[in-house]
Design goal:
The chain is mainly alpha-helical. It is built from 18 helices and no strands. Helix 2 runs antiparallel to helix 3, helix 8 packs across helix 10 and helix 14 packs antiparallel against helix 16.
Length: 416
């Protein structure tokens, strides 16, 4: 049974369920707190009823107390074997799993309340169903399989493009390949009248590679592999935190293309590529990695979106953990104030945290629509633009606050 999207929030949920049940047992079974709460609640209900000449409040409280006792306190079970949706859809090993996170934190044996477990999974499945519905009307990769896939590629690619190729030997190999193989292939396409947009005629495009000689194809294969490894190391594509989101399904061609096209940004070869004549010495002289904008502005454009996307599963997982662990305290409040509405607000709180996923999926689809519109207007890939990533990041950061406003509104409505 699937639980959560990433292994991180799935593991946090299971840890929260275990800790909640342990605290529940301690408060209501292992100590005299449960007896004291029942006695106090019964006396208050009896006192309230006697003032109105009825025993109904006391009877209602007794029924409520023992109903919740048998539903939420006494039952215990082992959770069903669960994996995250990313793990279930992974074509290759992710390098991290829900079970590995649990084992690392010492949760080798879990005990949960089956009712709370089912309720939590039902809320999560409801959200995931909404996200899946969004995926059905989009041609992009499934959000449940790889959250913010295109945006994360954009963050890495824009950072690489900003710096360019800083490895001089790799840079020289690319320039030589431009001169000896790429530009002649473009000249052939130009003579045939089949020259497309700049994004469609990059060195790895099928229409271009088909015109390479066998030597040129071998050189491009080796060069593209080295370019990707450079981008991987330079952009830390698979760093310790960020790798958890990629599901080992990274579009390597997208990264290589972004890196290659960055040379157009950083040198006068823009003119050379479009007009198909270039001096190798001139190209080598003008192509160089850019070290500009490394101050606060660069951090805001590139590092902040990256950090936010790296942290969101921990933020959401931690919030789910705290909400679930707080159930025993909520149950105490229900018994002492003798209001089931408190439990309803609690369920809304749990659902609202899980619903962050749906809001983020909507943001993801909006960014994809924006990317598509930009590409249709200009004919080139605009998904490397940092501005789009900043807007998406702002939306992600506002989601918890929006969730809190919804929870406060529900709480006030229930109170009234």
């Amino acid at each position: 049974m699937l639980r959560g999207i990433t292994p991180i929030d799935g593991a946090f949920e299971l840890m929260g369920l275990h800790q909640s049940q342990a605290l529940m047992q301690y408060i209501f079974v292992e100590t005299s707190t449960g007896k004291a709460v029942f006695a106090l609640g019964f006396i208050l209900s009896l006192w309230s009823g006697l003032g109105k000449g009825t025993f109904r409040p006391a009877l209602v409280f007794t029924f409520m107390f023992f109903s919740l006792w048998f539903l939420l306190v006494l039952p215990t079970s082992q959770p069903a074997s669960s994996v995250s949706t990313m793990e279930a859809s992974a074509s290759e090993g992710m390098g991290i799993s829900t079970s590995s996170i649990l084992e690392k934190n010492g949760y080798t044996s879990l005990v949960v309340n089956p009712v709370v477990d089912v309720a939590s999974q039902w809320l999560g499945n409801f959200v995931n169903a909404g996200v899946a519905a969004l995926d059905t009307v989009s041609s992009s990769q499934s959000y449940l399989r790889a959250p913010f896939y295109l945006t994360k590629l954009s963050i890495v690619a824009s950072g690489v493009i900003e710096k360019g190729i800083t490895d001089l030997s790799l840079e020289e190999r690319l320039v030589i390949f431009y001169q000896d193989y790429y530009l002649p292939a473009l000249q052939v396409l130009k003579n045939q009248g089949s020259l497309g947009s700049l994004s469609d005629i990059w060195p790895g495009a099928e229409s271009v590679t088909a015109l390479y000689s066998s030597t040129g194809k071998s050189l491009w294969q080796a060069l593209s592999a080295d370019l990707y490894q450079f981008a991987n190391g330079e952009g830390h594509l698979f760093d310790k935190v960020f790798e958890n989101f990629y599901n080992n399904t990274v579009d390597k061609d997208a990264i290589v293309r972004a890196l290659v096209m960055s040379e157009v940004r950083h040198n006068k070869a823009r003119y050379a590529i479009k007009t198909f004549h270039v001096s190798r010495e001139l190209a080598l002289k003008n192509i160089s990695g850019s070290e500009e904008a490394k101050g606060f502005g660069y951090w805001v454009k590139h590092n902040m979106p990256r950090m936010v996307l790296s942290c969101i599963p921990y933020v959401q997982g931690g919030a789910i953990f705290l909400v679930i662990v707080s159930l025993p305290i909520v149950l105490l409040a229900v018994f002492l104030w003798r209001k089931m509405g408190i439990l309803a607000v609690y369920l809304v709180a749990l659902f609202s945290v899980k619903a962050w996923t749906f809001v983020w999926a909507v943001l993801d689809k909006i960014s994809l629509i924006n990317f598509s519109i930009g590409k249709s207007l200009t004919g080139v890939l605009l998904w490397t633009a940092p501005g789009q990533n900043m807007l998406t990041t702002a939306g992600i950061m506002m989601t918890p606050l929006l969730s809190l406003f919804v929870l406060v509104w529900v709480a006030r409505t229930v109170k009234q």
